[in-house]
Model the fold of this input.
Amino acid sequence: METWDVIIIGAGSAGLSAGIYAVRSGLKTLILDEKFAGGTIADASKVVNYPGFAEISGGELAEKMATHTRMVGAVIHDLEPVTELELTDEKKIVKTSSATYEAKALIFSTGSHYKELGTKGEKEFRGRGVSYCGVCDGPFFKGKRVLIVGGGNTACTTTLYLSGLASEVIVIHRKQAFRAEQSLISDISSKNNVKIMWNTEIQEIKGDKQVKSVTLIDNKTNETSEIAVDAVFVQVGEAPNSQLAKAAGVETDEHGYIKADIRQQTNLMGVFAAGDVTNHPIKQVGTAVSQGITAALEAYSYIKRPYYRK
Done:
């Protein structure tokens, strides 16, 4: 069984930042991820609100973070999902698809996953016109007519990205106004091939081998309509990847987010959490980075127990 000072589960912005600070604090650090290092920020077409980068693609930012983390000496295991945890004792046991590890402290930075609409036809056409990532799948619909569902920053960013590829972008939002940053809203208003439908929701996604149309309902008038589209991009937010933590005895709130205090400590001693999986109200790259840093330094103080830890 390999022994580490700290094991970090999740290699997104929070996990990679935690890895950098853990290594710099002298901790032998292992980062595990079921996918590849970078996290969901890699799906963003561009990032314009991270200090130091006026504009950078999410993929490039994620790559820079992962490269930096490896350079300082953290070990990252891609494509190694964690299957079981034992966290109540002083020694933390982490079982994965290929090995078993032991650590003195553990940090959850498992992030979140895209929420689904739960509408008829969504599951049937996933990967056949229904997508949750504009950057990943947008190029397949160049010159096509696409529909975006959502009203937050992610939906607006995806709209701007797809407006440069698709012939027409239709955005539907169940409310009367976007809840995104004003700069994004202003940019969307300048796009001639973007149409916005307020107070509108999807009743059904239809097609044969691929998406062909959607049935929409106006939630104010209850009027329905059917429009032809080639793809539906669902951008209605994210839900926390906290199932593993919860099964191991880590407390979560009513929405499934891990409860973490100002030091990123959970209810279990030596177990910390950072990033979008936590109950912190702001879900941004900057906040994920700061929480990852805090979690790493608190893990260090937990392990080494310096004089300033109370």
